[in-house]
Design a protein that fits this description.
The protein has 86 residues and is mostly helical. Helix content is 79%, strand content 0%. It has two helices and no strands. The longest helix is centred in the middle third of the chain and has 57 residues. The protein starts with a helix and ends in a 5-residue tail after the last helix. About 16% of the residues have low confidence. This is Protein LITTLE ZIPPER 3. It comes from Urochloa decumbens. InterPro entries: ZPR.
């Protein structure tokens, strides 16, 4: 009887430790997911901004802070230098 109780207590302890480990891992993954979500949102906003600048440049309108120099001109400069725009 005493051995059976010890076995059950060890099992409960083991399950509690495993549960704690899983909870910590979930928290770590949740934080990583939030970080990636924020990064994705920033990148999407940057893409939209560049698309708007390219669209404005294609229509001949001056872009926001470029003083009339659109993304198309910058892109052609990269091509001439053999580099990819970032």
């Amino acid at each position: 009887m005493q051995i059976a109780k010890l076995g059950r207590m060890e099992r409960v302890t083991s399950l509690c430790l495993e549960n704690l480990r899983v909870m910590h891992e979930n928290e770590r993954l949740r934080k990583k997911a939030q970080q990636l979500d924020q990064e994705n949102k920033s990148l999407l906003a940057e893409i939209k901004r560049k698309q708007q600048q390219a669209s404005a440049a294609a229509q001949g309108a001056p872009s926001g802070s470029g003083g009339g120099h659109g993304t198309a001109a910058a892109s052609s400069n990269f091509k001439a230098a053999g580099k990819q725009p970032k």
